[in-house]
């Protein structure tokens, strides 16, 4: 479609926010998740209280039941068992509620995040979107959000419970023996430094994994979509090598991340085992001296396990956290990309339908980091005028079409519709009044009728049938296997290029816009349907304002006004016959086109 080349890198690969700032920003973008955390924390504390109560019951049962001064107290032991059973029930119920609450909040919040990311992508210009591979954008909205979901629902759950468990276990350890509690903390000081050491390493490793996933999906999706072209040029091996490289890079980055993850986990296990051994040794000495009872020592060993278990899990949680943060950064990188064609919405101008006047007022456009492709364009298009924009490849024709349909905004100047800057027009109003028919109409995986109805969902079957008749397409529809109910497949692959364009034309006709922008809608059409497409286009443009990007002589000859663009500037404007007679740029182009037609080119 494009006659302009550009290279840019507008969408951030990853947000540059730190871990805590990323989590805060992520919660801002997922309000349901943020609201759900409060009650979940309370439930997590209740669930943890039940766990921490068990060591206390063990201590009481040992010291006041089994080793009671007057001999074993069976009644006390039974009562202690009932208390332990009740604690288990309360813990289980609270754990269930924590899971349900967190899962619900996570799915609701991340659904909001997905919708925000998807809608924001549609607020970006086609230029900005084109700087990121489609597969990578899809990966950000799907895979990266799935990674966040996995952490919130499992890693986040473990994080909440582990934090509460460590705090409560610490309080009870201090109550039983400050000396043994100090031993535990001294043993774990090195682990704290180890975790701080591993955190940036894991963050970098999992960030690389998320990036490689996007690259891999982009390469695979391009190969699938472009399968026909790949086979036509016999480059299957080269394409396979490219995909193999993407898969291999992903494999290497995943292994690197897992190796670092295992190192962190094994280090934590070593510190936990060492801590238990030291506590047992010191506790035995204290018990012999009478500083702690046997029940307190047993309870303390339980508490050490309750303390070390979440600390051990902290390394695993850290892995998941860094993976989730990497995913969050990629999603935030999309959401925080400035919306360069944002819809003004309710604050925008809503215009009435009717005859339309288009004005380019001192319009210039330059792609980021490049020279201007349009310079000081001034042009007025009157209502009910058929305009053809012509020029050499790279002259700026397609850029004008994109600006006119507000797929991009000018870097200087204004494009006006009935005196209103396009940037002030609400999209709902703009899209009702202006419709683009590209070189190759995109069809969705549905039937012909649904694709025609796409731009006007409320249209009835009778409306569609009338549009088909008025465009003279009844014979073509009758020739389809199931008529309007014929399924077109993904991207309309079951139809020829010409048939896909007929559907796109019918779609535009049914939408009934005031202004049609045609990016040479017949250039990609097969000869068998070209005549039918031309007739349909005549019906489509009749009685309404149209702007056609012309690559063919016939398109320019049929226009009321021809606009000649040369090196980004409008150099000639006028009727076809008048411009041919002037002997200028258009006259030379027309002579070249005519010569090509005579020679069969």
TrEMBL record:
UniProt KW keywords: ATP-binding, Cell inner membrane, Cell membrane, Membrane, Nucleotide-binding, Transmembrane, Transmembrane helix, Transport
Domain ABC transporter: 358-592
Residue intervals of the ABC transmembrane type-1 domain: 39-323
Name of one Pfam family that matches: ABC_tran
GO molecular function (one): ATP hydrolysis activity
Topology versus the membrane: Multi-pass membrane protein
Residues annotated as transmembrane: 37-56, 76-98, 148-168, 174-195, 262-288
Record-given protein name: Putative ABC transport system ATP-binding protein
Organism the protein comes from: Ornithinimicrobium humiphilum
Organism ancestry: Bacteria, Bacillati, Actinomycetota, Actinomycetes, Micrococcales
């Amino acid at each position: 479609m494009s006659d302009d080349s550009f290279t840019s890198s507008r969408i951030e690969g990853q947000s540059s926010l730190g871990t805590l700032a990323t989590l805060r920003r992520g919660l801002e973008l997922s309000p349901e998740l943020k609201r759900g955390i409060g009650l979940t924390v309370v439930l997590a504390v209740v669930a943890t209280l039940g766990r921490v109560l068990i060591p206390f019951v063990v201590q009481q049962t040992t010291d006041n039941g089994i080793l009671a001064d007057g001999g074993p107290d069976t009644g006390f032991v039974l009562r202690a068992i009932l208390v332990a059973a009740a604690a288990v029930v309360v813990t289980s119920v609270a754990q269930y509620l924590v899971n349900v609450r967190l899962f619900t909040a996570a799915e609701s919040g991340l659904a909001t995040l997905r919708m925000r990311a998807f809608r924001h992508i549609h607020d970006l210009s086609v230029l900005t979107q084109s700087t990121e591979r489609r597969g990578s954008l899809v990966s950000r909205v799907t895979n990266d959000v799935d990674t966040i979901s996995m952490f919130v629902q499992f890693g986040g759950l473990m994080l909440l419970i582990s934090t509460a468990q460590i705090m409560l276990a610490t309080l009870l350890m201090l109550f039983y023996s400050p000396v043994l509690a100090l031993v535990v903390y001294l043993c774990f000081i090195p682990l704290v430094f180890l975790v701080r050491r591993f955190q940036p390493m894991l963050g970098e490793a999992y960030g690389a994994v998320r990036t490689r996933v996007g690259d891999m999906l982009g390469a695979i999706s391009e190969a699938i979509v472009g399968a026909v072209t790949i086979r036509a040029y016999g480059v299957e091996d080269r394409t396979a090598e490219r995909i193999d490289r993407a898969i291999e890079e992903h494999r290497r980055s995943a292994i690197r991340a897992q190796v670092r993850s295992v190192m962190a986990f094994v280090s934590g296990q070593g510190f936990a085992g060492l801590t238990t051994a030291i506590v047992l040794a010191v506790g035995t000495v204290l018990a012999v001296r009478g500083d702690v009872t046997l029940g307190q020592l047993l309870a303390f060993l339980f508490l050490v396990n309750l303390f070390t278990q979440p600390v051990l899990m902290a390394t695993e949680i850290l892995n998941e956290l860094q993976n989730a943060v990497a995913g969050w950064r990629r999603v935030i990188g999309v959401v925080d990309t400035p919306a360069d064609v944002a819809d003004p919405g309710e604050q925008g101008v809503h215009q009435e339908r009717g005859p339309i006047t288009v004005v380019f007022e001192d319009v210039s456009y330059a792609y980021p980091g490049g020279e201007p492709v349009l310079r000081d364009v001034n042009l007025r298009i009157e209502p009910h005028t058929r305009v053809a924009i012509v020029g050499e490849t790279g002259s700026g024709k397609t850029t004008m079409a994109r600006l006119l349909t507000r797929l991009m905004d000018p870097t200087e100047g204004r494009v006006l519709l009935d005196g209103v800057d396009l940037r002030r027009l609400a999209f709902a109003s703009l899209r009702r009044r202006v419709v683009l028919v590209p070189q190759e109409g995109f069809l969705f995986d549905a039937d012909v009728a649904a694709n025609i109805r796409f731009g006007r969902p409320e249209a009835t079957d009778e409306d569609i049938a009338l549009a088909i008749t008025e465009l003279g397409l009844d014979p073509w529809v009758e020739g389809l296997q199931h008529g309007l109910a014929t399924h077109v497949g993904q991207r309309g692959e079951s139809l020829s290029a010409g048939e896909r364009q007929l559907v796109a034309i019918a779609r535009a006709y049914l939408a009934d816009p005031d202004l049609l922008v045609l990016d040479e809608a017949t250039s990609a059409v097969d000869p068998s349907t070209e005549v039918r497409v031309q007739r349909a286009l005549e019906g489509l443009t009749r009685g309404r304002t149209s702007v056609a990007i012309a690559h063919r002589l016939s398109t320019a000859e049929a226009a009321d006004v021809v606009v000649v663009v040369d090196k980004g500037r409008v150099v000639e404007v006028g009727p076809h016959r008048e411009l041919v007679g002037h002997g200028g740029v258009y006259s030379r182009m027309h002579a070249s086109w005519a010569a090509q037609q005579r020679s069969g080119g």
